[in-house]
Amino acid sequence: MSQENLIKMQCTVCKRVNYWTTKNKKLVERKLEFKKFCKWCKKRTSHKEGKK
User: The domain spanning residue 12 has which CATH number?
Assistant: First the structure.
């Protein structure tokens, strides 16, 4: 994965960075949000795009 497209996915409950993903910044203007498993919360929570 190239470094300029790398994005942190941060848990909205505990605020920890659990996942890294990529995004095409030319086509997607809004922030990404996924429901993913957080190993600290021990449940599926909403993960939003974090700051670099």
Answer: 2.20.28.120
Helix (H, G, I), strand (E, B) or coil at 4: helix
Determine the 3-state secondary structure of 3 from DSSP: helix
Quote the CA–CA distance of 9 and 32 in Å, as a whole number. Answer: 8
Tokens 């605020």, residue?
A: 15
Phi, psi of 24 (to 5 degrees): -80, 105
**pTM exceeds 0.85:** no
Domain count, the chain: 1
Query: Kindly report the CA angle at 37 between 41 and 49, in degrees rounded to 5?
Result: 95
Q: How far is CA 31 from the centre of its chain?
A: 9
The predicted-structure confidence for 33-48, as pLDDT tens digits, reads as follows 999 999 999 999 999 9
